[in-house]
Amino acid sequence: MGSQQRLLEVSRHQRIRRSRILQEAEGYLELGMPRYALKSLSRLGPTAEFGCQALYLWGDALQALGRYDEALKPLRRASKIAPDDIYVWVAMGWCYKRTGRIDLAIDSLENALILGPEEAIVRYNLACYLSLIGEKQRCLEHLSEAFALDPHYRDMVDHEPDFDPLRGDSDFQALTSLFA
Description:
Layout: H1 3-30, H2 34-42, H3 52-64, H4 68-81, H5 86-98, H6 102-115, H7 120-132, H8 136-149, H9 154-157, H10 170-178
Helix pairs in contact: 1-2, 1-3, 2-3, 3-4, 4-5, 5-6, 5-7, 6-7, 7-8
């Protein structure tokens, strides 16, 4: 086997290994085991070399551990590598909200909305964040769209504390009772 052929084989092996590690980390996250996901990701080498998927999984694992400030670092990097990844923007919004930066949470969701206006989760989360800052009309517009795109979001409203600022509002009550 020539040296170039050996290099190609090593490169192929590294890609397969990397792919398996990413799948493993994703599996751990699906099982609710974020510490194990982080341990898996650590086998990829220096985080400075992580690609978008690894960065997203790293941020997702930190988010699952409630380490929102830390999660924002890899998520921001992922958003620069793949600015068209809706789920990176949603995850950043989620973390920004939990760090008290509602303004940045809304910005993140508005970026996601541009990329995926048909994604109910984007509209629902944006409605949550707009409710928190008293943007009633925009909140109701996005909430109505979320319900139209995926009616199961209606079931979540009663238990969502983000809507507490509008819960007594007649327009909010009318919208949420329409879909009951």
